[in-house]
User: Fold these one by one.
Assistant:
Number 1:
Amino acid sequence: MRALVLGGTGFVGMNVTRALACRGHDVIATRRARANTLFARKLGAKLIVADLDDVDSLTQAMKGRQVVFHCAGFYPRYSLNIDEQVSLAQRTTRHVIEAARRACIDRLVVTSSVATIGPPRQGRVLSNESDEMSADARDSVYFASKEAIERVALETRDLDVVVTCPGGIVGELDVKAGTGFIIVALAHRLLPFYVQGKTNIVDADDMAEGHLAAAERGRKGQRYILGGHNTTIKDLLLGIGDELGIRFTSWPMPLAIAKPMATFDEMRCAARGKGERPFIPREFVDIVRFGQWVDTERSMSELALREPTPLHITIQKACAWYERYRYIPRRLESRSVGESPSLPRIFAASSHSKSTDISSESRRTP
Amino acid sequence: MTAPSADILRNDVDEIIRRIRPDFKGEIKVTDRLREDIGLDSLHAMELLSAVTEKYELDVDIEEVQEVKTVGDVVQFLTTAMA
């Protein structure tokens, strides 16, 4: 396919670009004028400048392309000014859709998030694509923005649009350390506490393959969960600690304390005006507050997805990447990727997302 | 491309640093450390290295780029890469 990846220097965009290039597709990726392109330049795709606030530049970039992957998902550093941020998310998504119309592309694949998948209804344990995000989650900038993007995309009737909802993505090319922030923080022993809750972790390579599958086999107007493993934050941190050879001693902080602390911390960073990363990102707290275990049965079946990469291998790959590029200190004795950790029980407790595979131990996890 | 002089490289590096850190008003010295003295975090430092290597169309080893610690290191890195 002739593909265009919007957000070609971001974590999702780079992984999708790499997957497309590896499969021999003709791929072009977009970048912002001042983006860090050190990694994106190595992926085998031409980089062109396009701006989400400039429909003409987007249209120009899309011309002659069959499939556009909108991976330039809105990702605010701070969870402040919710109305402004949601409006920005809606506006930029509308620009992408308008450009797609003008360029007459065949299909638009929009990256959303598993954040838009709400609590399970009808007595189910796992959430699926039919579960709407709960209204409570709209007080979170991250959740509200993702929901806004998804609504604009799925309400578009005159274009062939498919939406993907990846879980927490862990893997290579995470230049800004998104979900992988917890790996970097733990490696530097900067995680004195954590907030316990449910999460779903997907390998970056699986997420990228899921995007290609959505482009090839997804149904128009549908959203697809790209999930990996249903687990808990504590089990995830135990697994990371095990991989890094660090004893996990972080303290579980109650949500009632974590939310106001995160909000205060973000306001402090925003007031300093240096774009500092908060010590407790509110977005992380929200992800735990509203985190769901998800059922990937539909996406596995309709998109013919492969089985998810084992979680310990995903963690190993991510740690190796962060180590290689000095995000985390070099370990004296590195394990090779694929070798089992010394505490496999951690991952035995966190099965992948199929509803039949949730172990009783994982459900019991506090 | 003809290799620019060290002075030109130094000016380019200064200009990009000021673009990335517009609130940095002091003099930029060759011995300044990117993080401690200029206040570039690791992502800013990568943005700087991305910009300078892109300007001079250098295909660099990212791990090698990350060895640079000071303004002088950046200039030296560019000089060596273009030699």
Number 2:
Amino acid sequence: MASVGPVIDENLPDTDARPQQPDWVDLVNRIQRDDPQAMEELYQVFTRGMRYYLCRQLGPQDLDDRVHDCFLIVAQAIRRGELREPERLMGFARTIVRRQIAGHIDSAVTNRRQQVDLDTSAPVPDGGMNPEAAAMNRQQEQLAVSVLKAISRRDREILTRFYLDEQSQEQICQDMSLTETQFRLLKSRAKARFGELGKRRLSRRNVPVY
Amino acid sequence: MEATFEDHCTDDALELYALGRLGGKHTEALEEHLLICEPCRERLDETDIFVRAMKGAAARLRLEQKTESFAARVARAFQVPAFPVWAASAACLCIIAVSAVRLQQPAPAGASIAVSLHAERGASQTVAAHHPLVLSLDARGLSLGKSAHIVLVNAGGTTLEQADVAPDNDQVHARFSRPLDPGDYFVRICRPGDADPLREFALRAQ
């Protein structure tokens, strides 16, 4: 696995966007006292994140049911006093969501084994990409091609090693005689250029905003 | 560093997470934070788009580079110094043109390939191009009745082939005789007479 610096950084911009921190211990206590407002607060805090994570891992099918199941498990565990460390409520919620995902994958694998496949058949799962999404993917890829073609061969080699060949930053810096700063600068410039080209394309098409 | 509610995910961590290369301990902290932070979820979506685009672009450019190198090597191998420069140049151009045409010609269609499509989320799977397909489509939960309409479309949404078939328990089987060129395709299950798909599967031929 690649080594990485801090995962969470208090110095990142958009401080105005930082949410208020709930008092987890207080929230858990209030839920255990059957406070309906506390339950509503729990719902507001977690369900959007649960939905995002479940959709990302399992797709949009049956998403509402899965989110509902995860939320119920968390809420019921709190009510029954099964949460030993209320301050670790986030970690507990994450564990529940991951178990839900693992359970779904296990049952999908079991179902697949029990099906009769044709000889020489290769299972092809539903990738969930409709024609519009595929077209958008291609456009974004074309933007990235433009970004890569506009930089030197060496810089292109560096980015290809990182994004396609899955080499680590450390390995690339060592092989290509780069400092960490130079590597990060190259990546951030490529990302900025990608964003610029994307915005330029959107403005040319006069995409309406609703 | 332990995740706290006030702080946000770093760009590096989001990128490694999008690439599937973030370590276990860091993944835990990041995922906990993503559960409760909308701005970081939005940043992860943007990172996903960028990472996916860069991967695809890098792969495409690498393939183009290999193709050019082969043509250039062929041209060099057939160069004859005693000829006049204009003749040698013309010969090289002809060789490159022939090589490029041959590289772009599709291979002749091969034997049919049987493919089973399941209604599960996952990375887009690939099949070999230039082969007709015999498809088994997962129709669980669709309540099709006696007949289903199967449509094969290309990435632009143009219908390439279609067929009416009888469901076989929770599957429908369809044979498409048209060999697929490399690219992205979609197979749709519809009710007869209804253009709206009930289910859609993605295929990549390469």
